[in-house]
């Protein structure tokens, strides 16, 4: 009896280990149709009572349900009447898969040492089996750009989807862009640490900007040469000049944004996106004139200054959208686990008076556009990846964000997680 | 050079010997000077309020013999005629560190120091009543001279280091007679502060509430020691006891600390003299209520440099207002009948004193009050009114001779006498040589114009149409002028020298560039055109923006009033058996919920149409760290003696932001730095009220406990391995140990035998007796279970587990124990111990019968607790009605406040929120947040406040730019970004 118990315990343990991460779904083998749902296309449009079909991982139809008939013999049909379908939500500048537990240093791979390191690549450290990554899916967050942090040029990001065996499987776009943190024009004393509370023009700013100018000049010169002695950082800059990679400039303040735009123009860098942009609403004309989009910070944050409107972070998207800027969102400044609140960041933005479908674009088509993956993701349109989900209700509101199905590239993924398993285990414990 | 120095030394020695009458004399005959000096025809300020016109001041041997209008002048008197001049008692600075060097900060050890570094003294290194400034005193000639030039005659100096700093010494700034003459009192006062000593790295106290708690315990310990209960020697306590009779001067440093230290003093019958921060005008009613006398700094901030708009944008309206308003501080205290003295402490140099006092006067401070603050009040504080601060008979002859009103810009301070020792600052006999002259020297005619100050004039010389380079020096009755020759190409000079005479002309010799010396006479032709324009001084009264409550962004000029309000046709979330009522009215009256029902009629009520809107009870956050100056006292593993009530900060902008999120009550918990933390402050977010008015009346008593990684310092860095406990095993023993000792303490106390009062033990006894409740920071199931078992062992119940992220694993045990769970909605993965935290926690605990609340521990999340509650609907399917109770009624229950708040029930406090939408919808906004019938947040008024602030900021910016254009100095703008405090915050 005792022995049996022991074996049973061992078995349980094994099971627990085995189910610690969800097994990636297999390829879509049969066509699927989702019928009757309200389809939020992601480009501002809505189709009530829609039909969406997909085949081999790609969307084949998006239409009014009345206009197309489906064959239940050749297709799996999901009746989603009364439910809502959304394109998979996309975030940017995330550390998901690079950090498992913030306070455990051994589990933290988001920051390499050094200052100029475009050659550092996030993708190869991305842990496709992270329990935190898995917990994104039940909320509809299915795709993210994973970026390295730290230093002036922190490295090269890649874009991944959240149901994979390994990073190669996960990759949607490899090495999509380089991340540059713009120098701060000001120095701020941390008065609570006894420092001079003064805000001053940084004496280093000019030098730091000049260092960035030099980097571009040096790497361009290098790339034209024979490259007999390889220079890894210079090599890694190549994509910026041939247009294959984007430059993501992390900058919050008005002057920094203005200077960063001048910098990219001076060096003829075409694909630049701003990450952050706390004061972007003050330079919307400039952004618009240069056709530059902003991946703004999440909305569940406090204003920077005691004098700012209490709701400034909430209404930031509205301020930019009203000015005609393409607004996406980044979650580089939240703990990884909070990234699953991405839809609620948008719901909060919508309460400030943006049309809900317009707000939805922030984490669907707009972010896809700004990340350069809008050919595959971001909307429910024919030809795009069938990366989408069905929710019981409005996915931007926590009460109704209840997923019944989620697909990545047509594959029906599990919505279970480490957390749902513990939930079930302990709910059962108390059921007598 | 060395010779000079030796000579000076010798001189000083001579004086020293001369002054000491009981010393043997070996260098000559006795030559005691018993002459009188009589100052006649002066306007004499005997005291600021007793002024004699054309009076006589008679002094002898360093003391005032008589002052009055008909003083008989003895024959052996030297008579000084001071017609048109004034005599004032010289100033006193009673918060000085003159001649007492503050020690250098010790280079810290990498390992933290928890125990005292001294032996035979108090258990805390920062308590140093045994320190005596006099032992470390060295007369500092340079500083003395600077102070005397600013008008000071006496300073009370002390060692500016430590929480208790020991005795000060009253020093006369005389150069005559050495320290024997200078030291008026070697034990003049005892000094205290809220700052740690730089000489010790002992961690405790690390917070404001730790410091006030330390002071309390120190007084308890002194009482116990004085009664002879101690078996070991404690030189600090002995000194403290010996210093009891002295005036107690404590540096508080700002308006909030002023009140905090006064509260400590009240408990022990000590009325401290409080060194304030100059911001007292912002909470003047509270300051008045302390009944204390204040010592005020007069360092008014310079305007901020707002030329660069990017930089100027980071400046907060609070800092701008501080610049604009701070000079009204002395006037505001005076208007409120609060006594105060001035100190030069915090000034870069005593030189700045006059400018700043003139500024305060131009902002409305009465000159008599200003003079009192520098003379009679400091003297009175020290109980030395008969000696200093006035020119009454018998007082020391410490006085100033001025050309007139000492608080006028143009007035010259001629002489500063200390104990009859004269220091000439500006000679009274300087002949006024200013004017226009003409001289003919070697055939060249010169027009000479001398202007500027009396003793340091400037000169302009021209010859014909060409103006020449010229320089003048005027010293000891000799005028020397150097002037370039008319033919400038030669770069040659003529030098003039003249001794002033009775005539108005300058007569002397001219040395030309070729070395020839001739006589010259410069005849005075007229008065100099002194730029009288400048004396058309700023007569414009300063433009002062109104003080608001709090005096920050979004403050109120007048606090909003309680109203009778009738909300019509709302969806009402009662949290009672009635559930959610549609199309229902709510009447609020006298701060209470007066009626809930259909078609209510509130006579005289302000009617608010709430159609399509929702009304709920205000949100209650069980776990908050906003509105406090400090969160953790991390200096000991148990700090039950500290209370966040002593650290409440009513000016925190997060109060306003929380109101905008529908929050009306919060528990400000101590942090999680130690297993037994500090006591809570439970407050209502009455934005604008004082700290004391925020705290609940008859507040339930709570204390923070903590478990796990934080208390065993897992994430504090590799050096933090000294403090017990370092493991969960140790954490249990901390509790067992403290509760065991608390029982023994109580038994001893009840036995009637003498005992040492221990604030920590008193608190723990309250827990054991069910009078104080624990809210315990907790994560993993083992430790949760452990604390319940410890409590059961000591026959009490844990009230609340806060965070309680693995509560779902022991929900059955929690229900059985009867403890509540106050948890995060969805936090996890930020540290090792939250790996198994799940967002379903609330629902599982709720289903198991535990009273569940959702808390924030975060100033951002707290303003969206309605959304956090909604997450429990998503994760685990809690009903909306129950989910809403997680942030209202349930935290009220956990805080033992559900008889007053947490639901909409007739008779309960009218703490309600009007929502634009379903309160748990992500699209809902709090439209009005009301506490006890007072609307503290209102969407429409918020817009008005924004507009008003914008206008005020542009006005203040304009004023600052005007200051800069006037040539006044500015300072760089300050960073207004605030530090957010959490559980782990230091």
TrEMBL record, chain A:
Signal peptide (from-to): 1-20
Gene3D superfamilies given in the database record: Metal-dependent hydrolases
Domain Amidohydrolase-related: 320-406
Keywords of the record: Signal
Top-rank taxon: Bacteria
UniProt xrefs under InterPro entries: Amidohydro-rel, Metal-dep_hydrolase_composite, Metal_Hydrolase, Metallo-dep_Hydrolase
PANTHER family according to UniProt: ALPHA-D-RIBOSE 1-METHYLPHOSPHONATE 5-TRIPHOSPHATE DIPHOSPHATASE
Protein name as annotated: Amidohydrolase family protein
Organism: Winogradskyella immobilis
């Amino acid at each position: 009896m005792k022995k049996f118990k022991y074996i049973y315990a061992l078995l349980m343990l094994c099971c627990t280990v085995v189910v610690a991460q969800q097994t990636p779904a297999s390829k879509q083998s049969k066509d699927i149709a989702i019928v009757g749902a309200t389809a939020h296309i992601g480009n501002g449009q809505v189709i009530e009572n829609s039909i969406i079909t997909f085949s081999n991982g790609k969307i084949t139809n998006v239409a009014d349900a009345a206009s197309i008939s489906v064959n239940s013999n050749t297709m799996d049909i999901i009746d989603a009447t009364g439910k809502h379908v959304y394109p998979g939500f996309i975030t940017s500048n995330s550390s998901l898969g690079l950090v498992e537990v913030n306070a455990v240093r051994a589990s933290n791979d988001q920051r390499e040492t050094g200052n100029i390191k475009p050659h550092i690549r996030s993708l190869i450290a991305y842990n496709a089996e992270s329990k935190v990554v898995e917990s994104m899916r039940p909320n509809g967050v299915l795709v993210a750009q994973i970026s390295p942090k730290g230093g002036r040029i922190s490295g090269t990001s890649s874009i991944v989807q959240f149901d994979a065996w390994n990073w190669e499987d996960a990759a949607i776009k490899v090495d999509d862009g380089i991340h540059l943190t713009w120098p701060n024009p000001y120095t701020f004393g941390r008065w609570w640490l006894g420092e001079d509370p003064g805000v001053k023009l940084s004496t280093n700013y000019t030098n730091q900007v000049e260092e960035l100018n030099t980097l571009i000049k040096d790497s361009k010169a290098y790339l034209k040469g024979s490259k007999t002695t390889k220079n890894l950082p210079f090599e890694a800059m190549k994509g910026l000049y041939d247009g294959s990679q984007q430059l993501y400039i992390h900058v919050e303040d008005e002057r920094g944004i203005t200077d960063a735009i001048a910098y990219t123009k001076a060096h003829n860098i075409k694909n630049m996106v701003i990450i952050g942009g706390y004061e972007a609403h003050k330079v919307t004309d400039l952004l618009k004139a240069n056709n530059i989009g902003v991946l703004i910070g999440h909305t569940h944050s406090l204003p920077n200054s005691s004098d700012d409107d209490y709701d400034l972070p909430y209404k930031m998207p509205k301020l930019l959208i009203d000015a005609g800027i393409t607004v996406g969102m980044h979650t580089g400044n939240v703990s990884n686990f909070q990234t699953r609140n991405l839809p609620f960041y948008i719901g909060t933005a919508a309460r400030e008076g943006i049309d809900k479908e317009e707000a939805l674009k922030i984490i669907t088509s707009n972010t896809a556009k700004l990340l350069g993956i809008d050919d595959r993701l971001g909307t429910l349109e024919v030809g795009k990846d069938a990366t989408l989900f069905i929710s019981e209700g409005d996915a931007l509101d926590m009460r109704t964000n209840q997923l019944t199905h989620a697909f990545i590239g047509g594959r029906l993924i599990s919505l279970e997680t480490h957390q749902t398993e513990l939930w079930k285990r302990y709910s059962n414990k108390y059921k007598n | 050079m060395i010779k000079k120095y030796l000579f000076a030394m010798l001189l000083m020695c001579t004086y020293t010997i001369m002054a000491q009458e009981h010393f043997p004399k070996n260098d000559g005959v006795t030559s005691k000077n018993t002459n009188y000096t009589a100052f006649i025809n002066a306007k004499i300020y005997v005291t600021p309020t007793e002024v004699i016109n054309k009076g006589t001041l008679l002094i002898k041997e360093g003391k005032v013999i008589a002052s009055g209008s008909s003083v008989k002048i003895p024959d052996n008197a030297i008579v000084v005629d001071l017609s048109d001049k004034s005599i004032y008692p010289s100033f006193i600075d009673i918060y000085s560190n003159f001649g007492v060097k503050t020690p250098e900060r010790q280079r810290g050890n990498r390992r933290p120091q928890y125990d005292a570094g001294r032996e035979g003294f108090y258990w805390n290194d920062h308590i140093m009543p045994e320190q005596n400034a006099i032992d470390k005193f060295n007369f500092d000639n340079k500083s003395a001279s600077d102070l005397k030039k600013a008008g000071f005659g006496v300073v009370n100096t002390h060692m500016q280091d430590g929480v208790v700093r020991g005795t000060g010494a009253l020093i006369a700034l005389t150069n005559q007679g050495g320290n024997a003459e200078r030291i008026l009192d070697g034990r003049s006062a005892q000094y205290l502060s809220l700052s740690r000593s730089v000489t010790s790295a002992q961690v405790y106290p690390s917070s404001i509430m730790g410091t006030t708690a330390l002071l309390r315990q120190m007084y308890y310990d002194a009482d116990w020691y004085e009664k002879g209960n101690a078996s070991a020697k404690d030189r600090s306590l002995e000194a403290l006891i010996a210093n009891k009779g002295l005036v107690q001067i404590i540096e508080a440093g700002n308006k909030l600390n002023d009140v905090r230290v006064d509260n400590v003093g009240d408990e022990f019958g000590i009325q401290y003299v409080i060194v304030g921060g100059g911001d007292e005008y912002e909470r003047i009613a509270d300051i008045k209520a302390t009944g204390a006398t204040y010592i005020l700094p007069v360092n008014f901030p310079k305007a901020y440099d707002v030329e660069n708009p990017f930089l100027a944008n980071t400046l907060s309206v609070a800092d701008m207002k501080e610049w604009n308003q701070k000079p009204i501080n002395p006037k505001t205290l005076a208007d409120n009948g609060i006594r105060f003295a001035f100190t030069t402490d915090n000034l870069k140099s005593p030189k700045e004193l006059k400018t700043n006092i003139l500024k305060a006067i131009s902002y409305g401070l009465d000159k008599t009050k200003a003079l009192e603050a520098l003379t009679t009040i400091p003297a009175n504080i020290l109980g030395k009114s008969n000696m200093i601060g006035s020119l009454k008979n018998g007082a020391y002859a410490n006085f100033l001779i001025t050309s007139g009103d000492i608080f006028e810009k143009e007035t010259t301070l001629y002489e500063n006498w200390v104990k009859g020792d004269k220091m000439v600052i500006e000679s009274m006999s300087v002949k006024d040589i200013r004017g226009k002259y003409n001289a003919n020297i070697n055939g060249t005619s010169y027009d000479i114009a001398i202007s500027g100050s009396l003793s340091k004039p400037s000169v302009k010389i021209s010859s014909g149409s060409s103006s020449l380079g010229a320089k003048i020096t005027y010293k000891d009755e000799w005028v020397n002028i150097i002037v370039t020759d008319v033919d400038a190409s030669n770069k040659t000079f003529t030098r003039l020298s003249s001794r002033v005479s009775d005539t108005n002309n300058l007569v002397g010799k001219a040395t030309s560039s070729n070395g020839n010396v001739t006589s010259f006479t410069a005849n005075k032709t007229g008065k100099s055109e002194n730029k009288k324009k400048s004396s058309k001084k700023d007569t414009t009264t300063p433009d002062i923006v109104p003080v608001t409550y709090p005096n920050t962004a979004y403050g109120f000029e007048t606090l909003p009033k309680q109203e009778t309000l009738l909300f019509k046709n709302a969806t009402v979330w009662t949290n009672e058996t009635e559930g959610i009522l549609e199309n229902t009215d709510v009447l609020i009256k006298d701060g209470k919920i007066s009626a809930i029902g259909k078609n209510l009629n509130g006579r005289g009520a302000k009617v608010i149409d709430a159609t399509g809107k929702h009304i709920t009870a205000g949100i209650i956050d069980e776990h908050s760290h906003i509105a406090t100056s400090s969160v953790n006292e991390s200096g000991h593993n148990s700090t039950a003696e500290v209370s966040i009530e002593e650290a409440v900060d009513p000016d925190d902008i997060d109060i306003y932001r929380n109101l905008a999120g529908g929050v009306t009550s919060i528990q400000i918990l101590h942090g999680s730095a130690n297993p037994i933390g500090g006591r809570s402050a439970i407050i209502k977010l009455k934005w604008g009220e004082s700290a004391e008015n925020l705290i609940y009346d008859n507040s339930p008593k709570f204390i923070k406990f903590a478990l796990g990684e934080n208390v065993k310092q897992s994430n504090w860095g590799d050096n933090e391995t000294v403090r017990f406990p370092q493991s969960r095993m140790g954490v249990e023993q901390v509790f067992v140990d403290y509760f065991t000792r608390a029982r023994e303490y109580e038994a001893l106390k009840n036995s009637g035998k003498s005992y040492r009062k221990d604030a920590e033990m008193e608190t723990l006894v309250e827990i054991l007796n069910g009078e104080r409740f624990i809210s315990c920071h907790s994560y993993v199931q083992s430790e949760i279970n452990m604390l319940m078992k410890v409590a059961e062992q000591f026959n009490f119940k844990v009230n609340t587990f806060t965070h309680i992220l693995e509560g779902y694993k022991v929900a059955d045990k929690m229900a059985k124990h009867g403890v509540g769970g106050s948890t995060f909605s969805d936090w996890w993965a930020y540290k090792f111990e939250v790996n198994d935290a799940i967002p379903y926690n609330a629902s599982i605990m709720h289903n198991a019968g535990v009273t569940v609340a959702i808390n924030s521990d975060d100033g951002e999340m707290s303003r969206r607790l309605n959304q956090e509650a909604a997450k429990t609907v998503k994760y685990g399917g809690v009903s909306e009605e129950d989910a809403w109770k997680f942030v209202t009624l349930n935290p009220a229950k956990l805080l033992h406040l559900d008889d007053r708040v947490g639901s909409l029930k007739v008779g309960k406090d009218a703490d309600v929120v009007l929502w634009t939408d379903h309160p748990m919808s992500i699209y809902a906004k709090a439209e009005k947040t009301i506490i006890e019938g007072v609307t503290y947040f209102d969407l429409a008024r918020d817009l008005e406040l924004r507009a008003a602030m914008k206008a005020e900021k542009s006005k203040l910016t304009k004023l600052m730019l005007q200051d800069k254009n006037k040539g006044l100095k500015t300072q760089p703008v300050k960073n207004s970004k605030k530090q957010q405090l959490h559980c782990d915050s230091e």
